[in-house]
Amino acid sequence: MKEKSDQELVKETLKGIDNYKYLVERYEKRLSTYIKRILYLNTEDAEDILQEVFIKAYRNLNSYNPKYKFSNWIYRIAHNESVSFLRKNKNLQKNIVNTEENNIFDSIPSDIDLEKEILEDSEREGVLHILQKLDPKSRDVLQLKYIEEKDYNEISEILQISSGTVGSLISRAKIKLKKLLEDGKNK
Amino acid sequence: MGKTSKKVLEKIKEEEIKPIPKWHFILKESFIWSLFVLSTILGSVGFGIVLYLLNNNDVLQDKTLVSNFWERIIFGIPFAWILLTFFFILVAYYNFKNTEEGYRFNVVKIFLLSLLVSFLIGGILYTTKLSEKLNNLFVDNLPYYTHTMDMRNRIWMRPEEGYLAGKINSVNEEEKILVLIDLNGEQWEVNYVDATVRGRVHLIKDEDIKILGKQVSEGVFTAEDIRPWGGMGRHMQESR
Question: What is the predicted pLDDT for the residue at A95?
Fold first, then answer.
């Protein structure tokens, strides 16, 4: 069962709920990391959201179109759940921005190649902390592009926006990030 | 089995959660597409009627019909239909954007496409005179239509000021008298002995006309100028 494709596992899940565990197991780690990175939550809160994501996915399984990647479909649900969590917990966003007032910028070299920086240092605290300071939209799009390594079409499917809009969101987010890095250096 | 999958499966079983049936999603998608088609049609009808009203309202050309510039604008331009047309185009755009594939398209392109489709179909409705027929249908059947959507009626239903419009009920060619049922359904006896009858007027039963003249008494009118209900500009000015 574990070798089956996502599409096949969806079919199997619709035949019997017990088969759903294979899909959950396949995506739980990736989605948990994604949710934690967007929302900067502790593992417990992220776990609650993750469960909701899988339950919502199961409930809407018949709306999944096998023409597209299942991973993008379930990332979309995770994205939507995270957005509605943020909406319900408006203070969280403020806290995210205010928590880090340290010298994280010092760890970033002055000669900045953003893409290289984010790609190579995605596991490093510095870049993740700076991403925290961005607005959720910019943060989300940069996470998907450079950390989750999704291409424009995949991001378009996840965020339900056109590829053109993805392009402009990424370039705007990069400008904001660059400004944050430069401001941090000048402090 | 992992911790998360165990919890998820337990919750699903415990709460007896079932996948929403496929037909539900098909129905939802069909509903959105139907709304898109319907609003595109309504937007097209709106645009067709805007074209018809703009091309058949002499208020914009004949300064004598109203007393000032603002009245010309208010009575000459079908603002209500223009607003309604844009509203339907916006609804069409919104529905298309919410279809399964709608997000893939650029927002501006979708809006321009909705606009273009409505203008194209609206243009066809106008040239085939369907928009005129629809407007007449609304005039006959929708209450307050002539007070909000087709302002021509308000201009041409002022008999005490010398403006009268309606449908010819009968014509006495020998005595040059016609019986007119005005836009409010009242009957008038119209004397047209000295009237200028414009080129496109045939003076036949069921013809829609508008008349410039004088009210003689209750239900009696003397025509000085008889014009076709529809149309304005050069062709209408030619007299027989």
Answer: 58
Length of chain B: 240
Q: Find the helix or strand (DSSP H, E) in which B166 lies.
A: strand B163-172
User: What residues of A are in the B interface, CB distance below 8 Å?
Assistant: 14, 17-18, 20-21, 24-25, 28, 32, 47, 50-51, 54-55, 58-63, 65, 156, 160-165
With 0.95 as the threshold, say if the pTM is over it.
Answer: no
Candidates A20, A163, A165; nearest CB to B9 = A20
Chain B neighbors of A54, CB-CB under 8 A: 4, 8
Q: Kindly state the tokens that stand for B134.
A: 């629809």
Which pair of tokens denotes residue B155?
């201009």
| B64 φ, ψ (degrees, to nearest 5) | -75, -20
Closest residue in A to B109 (Cα) is A162
d(CA B50, CA B70) in angstroms, rounded, equals 19
Question: Which residues pair with residue B223 across a beta bridge?
Answer: B213
Terminal Cα distance for chain A, rounded:
55
Our CA-based measurement puts residue A162 at a distance from the nearest CA of chain B, in whole angstroms, of 4
Distance, in Å, from the CA atom of B134 to the CA atom of B84, rounded to the nearest integer, reads: 15
Q: What is the DSSP string of A121-167?
A: HTTSHHHHHHHHTS-HHHHHHHIIIIIS---HHHHHHHHTS-HHHHH
Q: What are B79-122's pLDDT values in tens digits?
A: 999 999 999 999 999 999 899 889 888 888 888 888 899 999 99
| pLDDT tens by residue, B136-166 | 889 878 888 877 888 888 888 889 999 999 9
- The CA distance from B238 to B240, in Å, is 7
> Where does residue B79 rank: exposed (0-12), middle (13-18), buried (19+ CB within 10 A)?
middle
Cβ–Cβ < 8 Å for A40, A58: no
Q: What is the ipTM of this complex?
A: 0.75
Task: Convert the pLDDT of each residue in A99-144 to its tens digit.
Answer: 443 333 344 444 445 555 555 555 555 666 777 788 888 888 988 9
